[in-house]
Amino acid sequence: MGDVVVLLRLMPHGVETDMTALAAGVKSSVPEGVRLRGMQVKDIAFGLKALLVAAEMPDAGGVLDRLEAALAKVPGVESVEVMEESLI
What is the residue-averaged pLDDT of the chain? Predict the structure, then answer.
């Protein structure tokens, strides 16, 4: 098995959510075996922003599910959506 790179979109609870704190929460909650490759704040609409997270992980069962569950528990995160997944 190889590794996969996944792009996730994290939506905050609202426009008042501190995106810097959200990014810090993501960094501290990444499960073992997952490497962050980058994060970017993207404007959505009407002041709402999303945090795009790129992560690399082994192509093994359950790793992506653990990452999604960990990110969903970060304070300020409303939802986590997998945007892209690529085998490397």
Answer: 95
Tens of pLDDT, residues 46-71: 999 999 999 999 998 889 999 999 99
- Asked if residues 79 and 24 have their Cβ atoms less than 8 Å apart, the reply is no
The boundaries of the domain holding residue 39 are 3-87
Phi, psi torsion values for 16, nearest 5 degrees: -85, -5
- The number of beta carbons lying within 10 Å of the beta carbon of residue 79 is 12
pTM (predicted TM-score): 0.93
- Is 1 a residue whose pLDDT tops 80? no
Amino acid, single-letter form, for residue 81: E
Q: Could you give the number of structural domains in the chain?
A: 1
> How far is 11 from 79, CA to CA, in rounded Å?
5
CATH code of residue 74: 3.30.70.60
Distance CA 37, CA 56 (A): 7
**Distance (Å, rounded) from C-alpha 19 to C-alpha 17?**
6
